[in-house]
Amino acid sequence: MDEFSFIKSIQPTGYRQSSLIKGINDDAAVFRQTSQDIVTSVDTMVEEVHFSKKTMTPYHVGYRALAANLSDLAAMGSTPAFYLVSLVVPKGWNKEELSELYRGMQELSDKYQMDLIGGDTVSGKELCVSITVFGYVIKRMARYRNSALAGDIVFATGTLGDARAGLECILTGQDEPFLMGRHRMPSPRVHFAEKLTVLERVTLNDVSDGIANESNEIAEASAVDLHLDFEKVPYSPSVATLFPDKYEEWILSGGEDFELLGTVSEKDWSKVQEIAKQTNTVVTPIGVVKESVDQEGRVYMVKNGEKSILNKSGYTHLQEERD
Ligand SMILES: Nc1ncnc2c1ncn2[C@@H]1O[C@H](COP(=O)(O)OP(=O)(O)OP(=O)(O)O)[C@@H](O)[C@H]1O
Ligand SMILES: Cc1ncc(C[n+]2csc(CCOP(=O)(O)O)c2C)c(N)n1
Ligand SMILES: [Mg+2]
Ligand SMILES: [Mg+2]
Ligand SMILES: [Mg+2]
Fold it and tell me: Are 206 and 71 in contact (CB under 8 A)?
């Protein structure tokens, strides 16, 4: 297989998005949009950083790579439309493995009616999958991290810490299909976030690094303080049972759960609950937003009756170089 026969093999047979003018097979893709705002983002998965041959099959790599990008589109309240895939392929990856990687992406893109409209394929040392996504959102309705206000309820979707626990199960050979699935095939909260469009204001951030990070990003961007209650943070009982010494850390900073952390006014909380019900999403209130006296924006967490500052923590790329 060479670069060009590979590209031919992954070319879609048809496109779904009516705004697409030119897809794969020219120097670039073209789509036209006049009535909505366009949301775009890119996230990358690298072998030995985000996955290894031991932790994921090629199918999982494709699925997880697109899921992480869809999670950012969800965190902006947008509807997914297009994606482009940039691949660095090491020697030793065969055609079947690459087509499995695309099957993983396709499973999710079919679910959300997305079109694959381009990419790039080069050879290199480690497998690296970089996906660029585009989504649409009603004009001026994109959901930012800077819109939290004092009095808001802080909420989280799903359960936190599952992906980190799932990774541990995979690495240590414990057969826990649910947790392993949460690591390999996370569920971006696209439908839930889209439906929140009916709300005047909601603050959203997706949980890629862990709520210790993401809550601080909301607090800083909005210049408010978030007061979280540790006892309310949702997690799967099996995580606590299997990893009694680790689960408290993992639910705050395990990362890779691709759930949503948000804030919304108290008056709209019942609507959020209703939308959660409609979209089969579990949503849990975990704290409140208060004014920040010095506008710095901090996160406080009450645990065992004691309140302390919750600092950013979790996985940070480039850490060694900085130390
Ligand atoms: N190399 C880069 N060049 C330009 N902008 C970047 C680069 N890396 C990150 N950014 C920008 O920095 C901001 C934060 O990016 P970050 O990747 O932390 O967000 P995220 O995708 O939500 O988190 P994660 O990568 O953990 O999923 C985004 O606006 C992103 O586009
Ligand atoms: C084999 C293997 N080792 C370690 C990890 C853990 N890990 C890698 S990146 C990341 C944070 C999110 O990264 P990003 O900021 O790029 O979204 C975490 C928690 C893994 N998934 N696989
Ligand atoms: Mg990113
Ligand atoms: Mg994000
Ligand atoms: Mg991201």
Answer: yes
The crossing angle, in degrees rounded to 10, of helices 58-75 and 95-111 is 30
Of 93, 132, 124, 102, residue with least CA distance to 11? 102
- Of the CA atoms within 13 Å of residue 205, those in its CB half-sphere come to 25
**What distance in angstroms lies between residue 258's CA and the mean position of ligand 5's atoms?**
8
Ligand 2 pocket list (CB less than 6 A)? 49-52, 55, 167, 208-209, 255-256, 315
Is 120 annotated to bind a ligand? Reply is: yes
Map out the domains of the chain as residue ranges.
16-138, 153-313
CATH of 153-313, picked from 3.90.650.10, 3.40.50.720, 3.40.640.10, 3.65.10.20, is 3.90.650.10
175 is in an annotated binding site: no
Ligand 1 atom nearest the C-alpha of 209 is: 26
Paired with 225 in beta bridges are 290
Please report, in tens digits, the pLDDT of each residue of the chain (323 residues total): 788 888 889 999 999 999 999 999 999 999 999 999 999 999 999 999 999 999 999 999 999 999 999 999 999 999 999 999 999 999 999 999 999 999 999 999 999 999 999 999 999 999 999 999 999 999 999 999 999 999 999 999 999 999 999 999 999 999 999 999 999 999 999 999 999 999 999 999 999 999 999 999 999 999 999 999 999 999 999 999 999 999 999 999 999 999 999 999 999 999 999 999 999 999 999 999 999 999 999 999 999 999 999 999 988 898 765 44
